[in-house]
Amino acid sequence: GQGVDEPLSATGFRQADAAGLFLSNVKFTHVFSSDLLRAKQTAAAILGKNRFCKDLEIKYDARLRERKYGVAEGRPLADLKAMAKDAGEQCPSFTPSGGETLDEVRERARDFFEFLCQLAVELEQKEHGKPGAPGRSSGTSGEQFVFPWTNHCSEAEPSPEGGGSSLILDANILVVSHGAYMRNWIGYFVSDLNCTLPANLTKSHLSSVSPNTGVSHFIIKLGNGNLLKPEITCVCLNQDSHL
Predict the structure, then answer these.
(1) CA 170-124-109 angle, 5° bins
(2) pLDDT, tens digit, for every residue of 89-119?
(3) 75: annotated binding-site residue?
(4) Is 67 annotated in some ligand binding site?
(5) Per-residue pLDDT for 152 more than 50?
(6) Which CATH class is domain 10-66+101-125+169-239?
(7) How far is CA 63 from the centre of its chain?
(8) Is 38 annotated as a binding residue?
(9) Higher model confidence: residue 230 or residue 123?
(10) Domain-by-domain residue ranges, the chain?
(11) Is the pLDDT confidence value at 138 over 60?
(12) Rounded Cα distance, 225 and 135, in Å
């Protein structure tokens, strides 16, 4: 939850280092992290292993915090399940006293995602505003972003011209958050924004919580800067081959 702001364990640091090595050749343009300590340490470890982005500023955002669990925070998961059972409900839909509802978590995720979309549109507009400079989305300029999980994803991944695993993007954003929060964010992508999913993804995959440092990759297209109808493709979900 939010109320117990513990650091990573020794295992957590090893997992964060492994994620950093896995993503070491990915050139990020922006990094956002939850402002809880375990997420901050994970983001710092990932950037510390990166070939290109060691000095990139990490921006901390309270909208990326884990779901608030109220009276259940700092207690074993079994206690939360027992509370839900006593209330005649099931996890994860059960909301402990003082906790956030799933709708409230999803609203935080929606708000942050719309902020990212606005950021991307402003970047693209700024690029087009330069005299004689073609937009990065035209494919004639911009960075090549090489992703390490090409062999692990389905045919949902867009194929760049000429093959390989590089794409030209206006922005390549790393977001470091928490399991229950991200499950709600992905639910928002699927149910509200009609995200295209990998063909091999099952409902159990979709509803499961990511393992620590699991990597999910989404490609967002905003046609003509249209913030209301983003086209979202899930390339991979909770990828954990680095673990």
Answers:
(1) 70
(2) 999 999 999 999 999 999 999 999 999 999 9
(3) no
(4) yes
(5) no
(6) alpha beta
(7) 12
(8) yes
(9) 230
(10) 10-66+101-125+169-239
(11) no
(12) 12
